Amino acid sequence: MDELLEDDTPVVVGMACRFAGSDGLTEYWERLRDGRSAVGTTRRWAGQEPDHGAGFVGGFLDGHQDFDARFFRVSPNEAQCMDPQQRILLQSVQHAVDDSYLTPADLRDLDCGVFVAGLPGDYRSLVAQRSDVVYGTHSFLGNAPSTLSGRISYFYDITGPSITLDSACSSSLAALHEAVLNVRAGQCRAAVVGAVSVFSTPEVLRFAQRSRMSSPEGTSLPFTDAADGFVPAEGAAALVVMRHDEARARGLRIYGAVQATGTNHNGTTNGLMAPSSQPQARLISGLYARAGIDVSQIAYLETHGTGTPLGDPIELEGLRSAFRAAGGDGCHLGAVKPLIGHTLVASGLASVIKALLAFHHDTIPPVAAADDESVSYLDVAPFQINREPLPWPQDKPLCAISAFGFTGSNGHVVLRKLPAAPADADAVHRRQGRSLPFCLSAASRDSLAALAAATADLVAELPEHLLRDLSQLLLRRPRLPHELVVVARSRDELRAALTAQERPAEEHGRTPRSADIDRLDDTLRDLVVLWRTHDTTGALGRRLDAPADLAPLALPAYPFEKKRHWVLEEPVAPLAPESAPERGPDPVNDELDGPDELDGLVRELCDRLSALLGFEDGSDEVVPGTRIVTLGLDSLSAIQLLSPYQKAGSAIKAHDLFRHETVADLAAAIGGRPAAGPTPDRTPAHPSDRARQATPLIQWSQYGDTGRPTLLLPPLNCDERAWTQQIPALLRAGRKIYVPEYPGHKGTSFDEERFSFEALADEVADFLLDTVGGPADLVGWSLGGCISTLTALSHPERVASLTLVSCAPRYGEDAFERTLDLREELRLHSGLLEAVFGAGDNLAEKFSTNASMDILRSYYTSLTAFDVVDRLPGLGTDCLVVRGLGDCVLDEAAVAQYARVPGVRLREFADHGHYVPLTAARDFNRTLTEFWAERD
Fold it and tell me: Which of 122-136, 340-354, 627-641, 703-717 has the lowest mean pLDDT?
């Protein structure tokens, strides 16, 4: 493979599609292989049909009005104003990304670009019938062509080129061409290429009929004497394309390589819409010459093949001329439009995916009407048309694809089929009878249930020896809020566990984890822990087998929720500001009088958000703990939401909206004091009365369901990733882990008036009492050590033991300056740390929360004032002090102060510094467990 391709050759590592009668790659291939047409009649526009009520003929998608708005963080009011092309393409792109086994973080790292195409869109004509929304922001963005690409880049937070193209029916090949150019030029190292065609009205079908371009018989028969026009169709397709060296380095499965791409225009012909064989021939022969394409290696050419009596003969003549110029003898011709119709701007990608599936299955699919004895084919010599599926010839690895736009823009692509990699007997250890984890995750309980059912269907047909491959591939799928982990030894056990999953109840909260991961060996248990903790360091991916080394299983596509979002015939909450209740909110005091008044403000804000965003009455979509970022608010909606409160006296600003984590936090900011309300995906389940009256300063994450409670408090500006080397080991040792997220970290709110180290220590103590339910072992690193020390001094009955890592009982004025030298320590241990976190220019960023300098300044001010030296003799908790001798922040004099602690133990690590838990993880973990064992 490496000898055939240059490093910068673009390869396809993921793809997805949705066409008439084919919801996904598997169904599409089955239709291609069997030659079954999905063209038919729709009653979508009842009462608007021609010919005395006869339905429109075409290739139509099911559920074109449905969308999983919650998954993509879009509000119902915005979703109903979005062209369905935007919605359907978003879902197809997500399926393609899943198929590639890349994560959003990978896409960002690759500077991923977006190159897509869509129809001009007729949904705007339906939006125009709604006077209350037609001039709104949602309607403008929801129907702007540029939003088709922009919304994809926005959702994945990717910053590469983002372009929407339109060259009519050659658009998707033009998009692929632009993606290839950008990848080769280094503008991006990966690209999403997509296209979508959806009819919201019968406008396109009527135009095709009146212009006599579509088939009166409703059939597509290219290159036959019965060809009388094309059949319009809907469809969506997406590819993930990246540099070959990147795909190889990541061990990704490769469907095929994009060997060459090209575009041109017909120029002046008999008419703007008239095709011309000579420009088509020049495009193809010129591309072959520039790219060094040997036409004798082309086994198959997927034609544009619209089935029109004018276009087909012209395309044949262009192909003959191009192949003659290149010295070729022809090849097999194909056309997908008889099966799914002409998907217009998506037709080029429909052909590309057909070719890549043919590569994957080593088969040239038949032409749909080839076995129809009543149809006579034109003379296509020197090309051939096969009536049955044929084995792909091993000496002909190339496939060519054409697409021609009705305004004269032409596109041509050459794909290369790569030889199957030789089997590596040592690459994957498929020992049968071993307990394996099968991890499923979804954004909703309904989607999780559907995913479990689809996976059970896959398992029913899966050979026993491929269970490990399935387990490994599932662990590469993203971890979403709802999970199901099944541990099984055999196919029958796995299928029984999956099919036994009843549809989840509608109560609040996550779907319970069902697996006892103690059945797994240490290595597999670590993998599940990393998956459950939303690993963002890349450690999980590095520990898994490479997708290219595993069987090419077709995992179930993510089952999006199917909720109708349509601008007509659907009641919707008014969007105009004057639609708010006549009585505005009461004047907002500087500080609310009590929890009852605060609760009232929270409930009012939930109601206003639900109305503003269009959630159904009585739904639980907006509750006090709902995260603001998931609601789909934009800046204009924020102004509309907050304006009444500003008029009532609140100092809240619209640009501050996304600084608040939850609706309860936002209510607190509006009301002038912290508000109550649970934070989703956080641990506290039984808050104390005091916690109910104020949003906690600290948020907590939990790992493990049972075991001895252990709190791991990280350093300043660090999150749970700082404990990457400890969490899996401690879970194996039977511990239940809690890790805090400090105020102002990861964009969480920061209340300067309430902030102090003492306040954080009090919250830790309350958490131990209310949630943990008893004394716990505290391990505090640097800042975490300061907070742990104060907790043990003020609430000794709640602390079973205290381990202080790289922490001093007193810091001087130069505390901040000393931390500047930590980068050098990271550099010295870069080899080890890159093995844990992956390579990068700034290793500190791998576990940083990116707190702002203003917030860090508050922490450093408190740190320089921190002094517990005189209180150390009163520290009655069993205490272990850990220090690296090379720590640039601490000196011997500072650490020596801990000698005042009765019975203190000191463990020093030579050749290590401030980052002992990371750089000396194994010895540090052993030190911890031995310390705990001694005191037990």
Answer: 627-641
Nearest to 814 by CA among 853, 864, 859: 864
Model pLDDT, residue 586: 46
Closest CA to 489 of 521, 512, 449: 521
919, containing H or E segment: helix 916-919
Considering 342, 360, 482, 912, which one is annotated as catalytic? 342
**Which amino acid is located at 662 in the chain?**
T
Contact 700/684 with Cβ under 8 angstroms?
yes
- State both tokens at 404: 């021609």
Residue 510 has pLDDT above 60, yes or no: no
Average pLDDT over residues 597-606: 78
> Residue 228 and residue 312: Cα distance in Å, rounded?
10
pLDDT tens for each residue of 334-380: 999 999 999 999 999 999 999 999 999 999 999 875 456 667 788 89
Whether 466 and 430 have beta carbons less than 8 Å apart is answered as yes
SS3 sequence, 272-328? CCCCCHHHHHHHHHHHHHHHCCCHHHEEEEECCCCCCCCHHHHHHHHHHHHHHHHCC
Query: What totals of helices (H) and strands (E) does the chain contain, helices first?
Result: 34, 26
Q: What is the pLDDT of residue 687?
A: 33
Nearest to 590 by CA among 648, 642, 639, 644: 648
Catalytic residue among 177, 244, 304, 745: 304
pLDDT, one tens digit per residue, over 826-839 is 666 666 666 666 65
Contact (Cβ atoms closer than 8 angstroms) between residue 231 and residue 381: no
CA-nearest of 727, 760, 725, 730 to 744 is 760
Residue 404 has pLDDT above 80, yes or no: yes
Q: Residue 820: which residues within 8 A CB-CB, separation 6 or more?
A: none
Distance CA(582)–CA(602), nearest Å, equals 19
Q: Do residues 361 and 33 touch, judged by C-beta distance below 8 A?
A: yes
Contact of 238 with 15, CB cutoff 8 Å: yes
Of 17, 112, 169, 786, the catalytic one is: 169
Q: Please tell me the distance from the alpha carbon of residue 119 to that of residue 257, in angstroms, as a whole number.
A: 27
Q: Which of 38, 136, 114 is nearest to 567 (CA)?
A: 136
CA end-to-end span of the chain: 58
Q: Using N-to-C axis directions, what is the helix angle for 277-291 and 311-326, rounded to 10°?
A: 30
CB atoms within 10 A of CB 790: 23
Among residues 125, 198, 129, the alpha carbon closest in space to that of 570 is found at: 129
pLDDT beyond 60 at 412: yes
CA distance 11 to 7: 10
Backbone angles phi and psi of 437, in degrees to 5: -90, 140
**Distance separating alpha carbons of residues 391 and 452, to the nearest angstrom:** 35
- 257-271: pLDDT as tens digits: 999 999 999 999 888
Distance CA 890, CA 871 (A): 19
The token pair that represents 7 in the structure block: 């490093």
Length of the chain: 936
Least confident range of 48-57, 509-518, 541-550: 509-518
772/304 Cα distance (integer angstroms)? 66
888 part of the active site? no
Residue 703 has a CB neighbour count (10 Å cut-off) of 22
Interval 659-668: pLDDT, tens? 777 888 788 8
How high is the mean pLDDT of the chain? 85
Contact 778, 767 (CB under 8 A): no
304 is catalytic: yes
* Helices 147-156 and 84-100, packing angle to 10 deg: 40
Rounded CA separation 127/765 (Å): 55
For residue 545, pLDDT beyond 60: yes
Confidence check: pLDDT of 78 > 90: yes
- 342 catalytic per annotation: yes
Strands 113-118 and 162-165: parallel
